[in-house]
Amino acid sequence: MTKYADDIDAISTVVSANDTWSAINPEYAARMRAQNRFKTGLDIAKYTAKIMRADMERYDNDTAQYTQSLGCWHGFIGQQKLISIKKHFNSTDRRYLYLSGWMIAALRSEFGPLPDQSMHEKTSVSGLIEELYTFLRQADARELGGLFRELDAARKAGDSAKESEVLAKVEGFQTHVVPIIADIDAGFGNEEATYLLAKQMIEAGACCIQIENQVSDEKQCGHQDGKVTVPHEDFLAKIRAIRYAFLELGVDDGVIVARTDSLGAGLTKQIAVTKEPGDLGDKYNSFLDGDYVASADDIANGDVVVKADGKLLKPKRLASGLFQFKPGTGEDRVVLDCITSLQNGADLLWIETEKPHVGQIAAMVNRIREEVPNAKLVYNNSPSFNWTLNFRQQVFDAWSEEGKDVSAYDRAKLMSEEYDDSELSIEADKRIQSFQADAAREAGIFHHLITLPTYHTAALSTDNLAKEYFGEQGMLGYVAGVQRKEIRQGIACVKHQNMAGSDMGDDHKEYFSGDAALKAAGEDNTMNQF
């Protein structure tokens, strides 16, 4: 017996025990059950947490088994991404979704477009998680619905071989539901606020929550200036709050990603509490920039003084009330942040960098692994980096160090199209292509993501369509640039009525009304042209 057959039998037993249910077809009910595998977001969180933990273990044994995701700002975009992955690779293994706080701010806030500064409604985070999984579950229902229609056609034709083939596909069906790494920003408030939002996110389906060590009310995008970090104890309280949320909801293997912005953050809002030399607070304060004072005469009205290294230090304080860190301490602070987070409940790290450079990332990770040998990263392959220029300059610098003649290139202008077919640019593109595999192998990166790629693809594709459709190409701009490509590339949503659920609705109408069902997919449905 198969699960599908088992469900039919189980439902038959229930239906036969109720005299008034004789019109219910147990197989139709079994189909609806198969098309709705996940009943709640918690079901999804528990299922995907196990997937992610298994992937982490697999990566520890083989760094070639790294994972990837793309940020998606709408359920439809996430759905189409997973449909595409299944179509091209026949598996969703090691492919996740990323939920970007940046894109929520820019695209999902009721205030309208906002910068990535935690000003958007916090509930929009859990709302997008729920929306993404609603669309992924609909993708399951749609694909299984197609298989069930194939099954009925095979039975009608008396083709038992085809019937067996389709039933095997039903039993071996791989869901579109995959893990989401979800951005909770800096927690949207204190540790209690972090806990409450984390619960909503987990209940919506999140098995993995990423939190950063910035001050909530001063939060900035990781690739902007003005970032302000918090002392470690403040950050650890929020990590614990998220863990409590996972445990309360029964997701015992939920994953926490601790992000540090210290590499590019030169400011702190508060001086850490310290009880004795060398404790965590003292280590945090040791990075403060300032001047040692010998007497009260060196202290002005309102100055703050701390004891550090047995001496009195007057930290440099800005007009904003923020304190500065010593220049050049970013990497040391990153290493301390990461070790501290992993030793206090975090599972994965995120180091926000200013450029995609394997050597830079590896240098920090190797230091972290001296204390935590299995430390591994989630890394932002950010659109904020100019990848072309960065890698062309990396090749330029490497060739210069090797003594190779680079006089044909202007390092500052390597983005220019005139270099596109050059030997240097070809080598740079090879390094971009292998960046994820190289960084997974050499720099401990378990998961590679692009935070907001679909923000850019939406803008690019819309620009191309608008240019052609409103220009000389007219309708051909849409037909040649969109529809013809959809048909030839096998893009499922070319049948947009089907993608939106019309065939599933017809199936249900037939289940509910039998021959009296008024279905949309008749011969006059123009979708039949595709």
Written description of the protein model:
The chain has 530 residues and is α/β, with parallel strands linked by helices. It is 49% helix and 11% strand. It has 19 helices and 14 strands. The strands form three sheets. The protein has an eight-stranded parallel sheet with strand order 12-6-4-3-2-1-14-13. The chain has a three-stranded mixed sheet with strand order 5-7-11, with no helix packed on it. β9 (306-308) and β10 (311-315) form a beta hairpin. The longest helix has 35 residues, at 123-157. The relative contact order is 0.10. The model has no long low-confidence stretch (mean pLDDT 93).
Task: Give a topology summary.
Layout: H1 3-16, H2 26-34, H3 41-61, E1 67-71, H4 75-89, E2 95-99, H5 101-107, H6 123-157, H7 160-171, E3 180-183, H8 191-204, E4 208-212, E5 228-229, H9 232-248, E6 255-260, E7 267-268, H10 280-285, E8 290-293, E9 306-308, E10 311-315, E11 323-324, H11 330-342, E12 348-351, H12 358-369, E13 377-380, H13 387-402, H14 423-433, H15 435-442, E14 445-450, H16 453-469, H17 475-489, H18 496-499, H19 502-513
Parallel strand pairs: 1-2, 1-14, 2-3, 3-4, 4-6, 5-7, 6-12, 13-14
Antiparallel strand pairs: 7-11, 8-10, 9-10
Helix pairs in contact: 1-2, 4-6, 6-7, 6-8, 8-9, 11-12, 12-15, 13-14, 16-17
